[in-house]
Amino acid sequence: MFWVRFRSSVIIMAIAITALLLGGNVLFAAILTISLIGVMELYRIFHINKTLLGALGYLACIAFDFLIIYHYEQNNMFLFISFLLLLMIIYVFSYPKYRIEQVSIVLFGLFYVAIMLSYVYKVRMLDDGALLVWLIMIGAWGSDTCAYCVGVTIGKHKILPRLSPKKSLEGYIGGFVGAALLGFIFATVFKNQIVGVQNPQLAYAIICGVSSFISQLGDLAASAIKRNYEIKDYGKLIPGHGGVLDRFDSIIFVAPIVYALANVL
Fold this sequence. Notes:
mainly alpha
């Protein structure tokens, strides 16, 4: 199992690094694809992935991403209202085929997966985006690695044993400190390429530290959904890891935080 997970991790990292380096349309296509697969995995839990409701959800995700790439984000509210109205129309005129929780999860999927993941692309398109986008990886996957190492080594105090028995307070703190340190080191290495920030080491350490906190919260939120519906993984697309949502659950929460903090700091 270790080598299966390792091989999958190497492939995922290679694809992610390539997409982030190239940016532009390549990254946009990657984010859109991941979003659609993630939404499908979420819909599958509620048995709506192959229904009219699901199809409307996929179309809404595509429409939202294309509003971003073509700079029509001022129309987002119109999209959201239209999406909700169409959901209600399907719900009413097909009654009692769908339950209200199924309708709600279609709307939730747009925000939880597509909108949150779109911030990876939005961060990459910032002035320092070529560097800032790597803070998402540090705040999510770097934090996760640090938290795991510290938790396995000295973790004793469980924070939410009923939700995630293996996660400890020591691991949580280790992830936070480790991510902040990685952010500081990253800024130190590339400080000559960072513009518009007086103290990039401090700024990047803050961004990565806060991202770590949010990342681990996102991981717990994804675990809570799975436990509610008694499933181990969201899918089987990535051998040894599960589905897209199993691998990108922390990225989903970290990307908007990096975008917000990058604009503030």
